[in-house]
TrEMBL record:
Pfam families: ResIII. This is Helicase/UvrB N-terminal domain-containing protein. It comes from the Bacteria. Residues 118-329 form the Helicase/UvrB N-terminal domain. GO terms for molecular function: ATP binding; DNA binding; hydrolase activity.
């Protein structure tokens, strides 16, 4: 039995015993992560919470053991120990070595004898044995939230350190190695975690107050933290904090030496300065999201560099623990020995955190590039042309090539195919090492901008590990890819990451040569075959939705509509002059007061002096701005980029300047006028003709199908079952204009149930109530409102509930957690409320809990029973 299976059994028993330890606060923290009423996790996913439990079991129950000591403790039988460590050596060698010193001599041989290690493929085990500090691997499939898990462990460690200040065994500082060049992304993800949903209120407030997030910056010679301080989270990567001077660039130290002979000395000094700053921090933990770099196939120079850095810190400071996260826990078809928790790729698909790919892995025979490229592009747009993710970003396709020449030969084929199927060939973007820096920056850092025009990416040595494109639905591996370890796997699996409310499968296109490569890499890194991945399916459920009420009167509202009137005007962009705006620097003043008691004067604050304040504004980079303008006005990207770059050669534009340039272009390029008028409209709550029409028991019914994940089953509310369970009081036929209602959250469901109880006791003059938040298809309903987002684009919005009174008055109710509130949406409905003051009221109910709460339900109660004046019921 593997270590992670044994650990799982031990943790399960610990959970049954209410997480007993010498430190009862950990029980409070872990139990807080569950909602006591629903039994569901508040924020963390199941895999994240189980990994957190396992970590704290080892820390508190097992005493943070060295991984090899943990093996010896759990496997007291030498035969079982050898099996668990996957030591399989010849009988002759076994007898010969053990005769010189027993079982310990075997492990000593592994530590010191290179030939012996190579012969029996024990490289990974040697690394485990050679570590001088506790180091664990938490292996979670991509998309399971490894960065959030790291942040959760740090938060709980800091909370325990604050709770038990006299105990020196808890972490007070954290160094986080982010993969590749994703430092800022990891920093943002760590700082954005809702820690109030992980730690109880009394602990989360203190943690949020004291924690300091920072990162290693290219232009700074040290790390911006106070030496020997506590509660720091430093985010870096292996390029920016290593013991080697070679990682220090000349640009970083150009002001520190006057002749080239000093360069090596200065580089070593800067490298040491960063490490010394980290080494000064007490009670340190190191977190690495690069475990697959430092184990297994990478047991070479990369491992030596990282290990040398960690070994240095272990020697110079109080290093309590090293935590590695990875999505690839296998080496040579064997699970790495340091893995204490494992959550596989297939399990991720079943739990809905990865897209399903069942039946969508397509292998092509040995065909010419033209046929291969043509077919995958046609097939992709046949299946995904209109597919969008939650923020409106259209589905994307990535095609991987072994060489740039292969890519350039394929690009004209891709563009020609797009033209043939009626699409703009400019949606193709090639990205490789020879691409311009602006292109590489867009690809690495702005790929999730919903307004990027690109949908087909042609890639060489790009788009694998660390590339997180949320709208990527398909990958294609052209020709045989042997660029690097696991490249084929990393490329193929990029499209599996799931997005909210997605019901579409991912798709992988393979040339025949790549099928065996992908299959073997899956087996080696995940312990799963291509067939197993192809068979894995998420726990998605389907439910037939039936319209119960088809004769619903339309909602009558006054609304402002804008009309766009086209003009017969031709504009040549080349003739348009873009002027750099002249905007004065914004200034303000701060007033400094003295405290002075003057007779016969009421106040004691006397103005001492005034000081000027210069207000610094944010900047946008030139390339991102050019992409936006290109998309808005259908201009050539590189043409507009070059024009803007001429005005701003430093590559950054103040936001106020960007706003003015947009206005300039809008005035010069617009080929229309906009008029606005107020009209009364009739909005259909449901459009039965666009549902599926069926005959049942000589009656016509209207149906459609909804898809939901098994974990959301508790949010479905069926009319028949609800009526049966509540027949003692549910007598009035309010609500359920269709069944089942598929709520998005527990507060929505709680609000609806409480509203029914209230109205069954006193229906007042309520005509009916409708849950409208789950229907946002314009074919099924007109009850959809437009709002202008921060980006200036128009979006659709469907409120959660509509309550109609018999006198024509209405109440729209929106339920949101504070962090999900959207000012633009609220403003749009409030404007309509202002146009309909005598018939419409809009209430926003804010809750961060699973129940709606007394204050919120009371707001609605007042609106229902006192609408139009105190106790009025007209």
């Amino acid at each position: 039995m593997t270590l992670y299976n044994v650990s799982k059994s031990k943790v399960r028993e610990w959970r049954r015993n209410n997480y007993q330890s010498k430190f009862p606060t950990i029980s409070e923290i872990l139990e807080f992560n569950f909602n006591p009423e629903t039994g569901n996790l508040r924020f963390l996913r199941k895999a994240q919470f189980e990994a957190l439990e396992t970590y704290w079991y080892l820390r508190l129950v097992e005493g943070t053991p060295h991984i090899f000591d943990l093996y010896k403790r759990l496997y007291d039988d030498p035969v079982e120990l050898f099996k668990a460590l996957n030591i399989s050596i010849s009988q002759d060698d076994l007898i010969k070595i053990m005769s010189k010193g027993g079982i310990d001599s075997i492990f000593e041989k592994i530590r010191k004898d290179d030939d012996f290690v190579r012969e029996y493929k024990l490289e990974a085990l040697r690394e485990t044995l050679s570590l001088r500090y506790p180091s664990y691997i938490l292996a979670l499939a991509m998309g399971a939230g490894k960065t959030v898990l790291i942040g959760t462990i740090i938060a709980t460690e800091f909370a325990m350190a604050l709770e038990y200040p006299e105990n020196t065994s808890f972490v007070k500082n954290a160094l986080v190695f982010a993969p590749g060049k994703t430092i800022l992304g990891a920093l943002k993800e760590l700082s954005d975690i809702p820690y109030e949903k992980i730690l109880p209120p009394r602990l989360s407030k203190e943690f949020i107050t004291l924690v300091k997030f920072t990162y290693t910056r290219d232009g700074e010679k040290d790390i911006p933290i106070i030496r020997e301080s506590s509660f720091n989270v430093v985010v870096t990567n292996t390029e920016k904090i290593r013991i080697q001077k070679q990682t220090i660039t000349k640009s970083l130290i150009r002001d520190l030496f006057s002749n080239s002979s000093q360069e090596d000395v200065i580089k070593q000094e800067v490298a040491n300065r960063r490490l010394q700053t980290i080494a000064s921090l007490p009670n340190l933990a190191i977190f690495s999201d690069e475990a697959h770099h430092t184990y297994g196939q990478a047991l070479g120079e990369e491992l030596k560099r990282v290990r040398q850095t960690v070994d240095y810190l272990a020697e110079k400071t109080n290093l309590l623990v090293v935590v590695n996260t990875t999505g690839t826990p296998y080496y040579g078809k064997q699970i790495l020995k340091d893995v204490i928790y494992w959550y596989g790729l297939s399990q991720g698909i079943k739990d809905g955190i990865l897209k399903e790919v069942r039946g969508n892995i397509v292998a092509y025979p040995e065909v010419e590039d033209e046929h291969f490229i043509r077919d995958i592009i046609i097939d992709f747009f046949n299946n995904y042309k209109d597919v969008k993710i939650y923020d409106g970003t259209p589905a994307k396709l990535a095609i991987y090539f072994p060489k740039i020449d292969d890519l350039r030969n394929a690009k004209p084929i891709a563009e020609k195919t797009l033209v043939e199927i009626g699409l703009d060939p400019s949606i193709v973007l090639e990205v490789h090492n020879e691409s311009k820096d602006e292109i590489k920056d867009l690809f690495d850092n702005r790929i999730n901008d919903p307004y990027l025009p690109y949908r087909v990416f042609l890639l060489v040595n790009k788009g694998t590990e660390g590339w997180n494109c949320l709208s990527l639905y398909a990958t294609a591996l052209a020709r045989e890819l042997k660029a690097s370890n696991n490249f084929c796997l990393q490329a193929a699996s990029r499209c599996l990451r799931q997005t909210p409310r997605n019901i579409h499968k991912a798709k992988i296109y393979l040339s025949k040569q790549n099928v065996k490569i992908l299959d073997s890499q899956l087996k080696e890194t995940y312990g799963e075959t291509l067939q197993e991945l192809n068979l894995a399916s998420p726990d998605l459920r389907k439910e037939r939705l039936i319209l119960r009420k088809t004769e619903i009167p339309p909602v009558l509202l006054k609304k402002k509509i804008r009309k766009v009137i086209p003009l017969d005007k031709k504009v040549d962009f080349k003739q348009i002059e873009i002027q750099k705006p002249e905007i004065k620097t914004q200034e303000s003043k701060k007033t400094v007061y003295d405290l002075k008691d003057i007779p016969d004067r009421k106040g004691v604050l006397i103005t001492h002096k005034e000081e000027k304040l210069i207000i610094e504004e944010d900047f946008v980079d030139v390339y991102s701005f050019a992409v936006e303008l290109s998309s808005l006005y259908r201009l050539s990207l590189m043409t507009i980029y070059e024009r803007i770059k001429e005005l701003y050669p430093d590559g950054e534009i103040p936001e106020s300047h960007a706003f003015e340039i947009r206005k300039q272009l809008e005035e010069k390029l617009k080929n229309y006028d906009i008029t606005e008028e107020e009209v009364e409209i009739a909005l259909a709550l449901v459009k039965p003709k666009n549902f599926n029409k069926e005959e049942r028991d000589e009656k016509t019914i209207y149906t459609t199908e909804i898809v939901y994940h098994k974990g959301q089953e508790n949010l479905l509310l069926k009319y028949e079952r609800f009526k049966e369970l509540n027949k003692g009081w549910y007598q009035l036929e309010f609500g359920f204009h269709y069944t089942p209602y598929n709520f998005d959250s527990n507060p929505e469901k709680d609000f609806f149930e409480q509203l029914l109880v209230m109205l069954n006791e006193d229906p007042a003059d309520i005509e009916d109530i409708y849950f409208t938040g789950a229907k946002n298809d314009t074919d099924k309903t007109d009850f959809i409102f437009e709002y202008k987002g921060k980006d200036g684009r128009w979006n659709n919005y469907t409120p959660d509930f509509l309550i109609k009174k018999k006198n024509g008055k209405m109440l729209i109710v929106e339920i949101k957690a504070e962090i999900f509130r959207d000012e633009a949406k609220e403003k749009a409905i409030k404007e309509i409320e202002g146009l309909n003051p005598d018939r419409l009221k809009y209430e926003i109910l804010v809750t961060d809990r699973d129940e709606i709460g007394f204050e919120n339900i009371n707001k609605v109660k007042e609106a229902i029973y006192e609408y139009g004046g105190k106790n009025a019921r007209k």
